[in-house]
Amino acid sequence: PMTTPSPTPPPTPAPTVLVGVDGSDGADAAARAAAEAAAARGATLCVLRVVDWPEAGIAGLPPDLDGRSATRAAAELQVRWLVARLAQWLPVDRITGEVVDGDPVHVLRARSQDLDLLVLGAHGQAWSSGETLGSVAAGVVRGASCPVLVHRHEPALGEPHRGVVVGIDGGPGSAQLLDAAAAEARLRATTLKVLHTWPQLTEDAGTPVKWRLDPATTTTAEQAVVAELVSALRLRSDVPAVDAAVVGGRAGKVLVWASHTAELVVVGRPELSPDHEMRATTRQVSQRAGCPVLVVPLATTADVPVPA
User: Fold this and answer.
1) How much is the pLDDT for 66?
2) In sequence order, what are the beta bridge partners of 192?
3) What is the CATH number that goes with domain 164-298?
4) What span, in angstroms and rounded, lies between the C-alpha atoms of 253 and 208?
5) What is the pTM of this model?
6) I need a labelling partner for 266 at 20 to 30 A (CA). Which of 2, 12, 122, 177 fits?
7) What's the CATH number of domain 16-55+67-151, 3.40.50.10470, 3.40.50.2000, 3.40.50.620, 3.10.28.20?
8) Closest by CA position to 52, among listed 24, 66, 71
9) Are 248 and 202 in contact (CB under 8 A)?
């Protein structure tokens, strides 16, 4: 008897990376990082500029100048220039450019629902630097539906940053966060360091006193919290070398310290309402890290993956 051939499954769509730009130096550097991330993933890349022209216009402009049109024309020119420049790292047929009107935070949050990765510079055209996060980046990180890479320049002087660092607490969302960090380490062909922290007694009064007064007992107990997760990670053939450490101290402070030698720090963010305030660890690391930070939305209402 004749057999009916099985239907050919539809091709798996290529991953999609989007970078938000605004004409600043930080955004241009983020665009290059996005192109490199897309190349490593076999993804397409969209370079998006959101023009947020105030409805009331800007006071002081010549009356015969159409400021909105001029701004949009400049934005389109910048996006075309970036698309051409990024062909150094990604085939041009995998890069698109787009200019839209609207509020950058709202537009980027909406686009994140269909992305595999969203890339932003830590600082845009606003007057901010150092231990701050631009208002657009902060707003997007707080409510994006996909992982957000907050890009920062690596210092020109000093030793190159190496390795991916991830902080976990062993609770809900930790396995998902480890998967994301392991994927980044694999793409970058580098090591993965898993950090788990425990706060002092005065910062965590609900924990049995004997643990906090005996560092050895505390370390043993905290190692047990994440041991199974780390052991499972080490058994995977697709994950590079894995190192794990239990460290006493505030999670945000420990991760910021680790960021000054790492090439990437990975933290989690619970999938809460878009306008919900980020917990202390995620906020502190995204603002103060000395390297790029990947913020991963977690399908849990539990606290962030490292205790604040």
Assistant:
1) 63
2) 164, 242
3) 3.40.50.620
4) 23
5) 0.84
6) 12
7) 3.40.50.620
8) 71
9) no
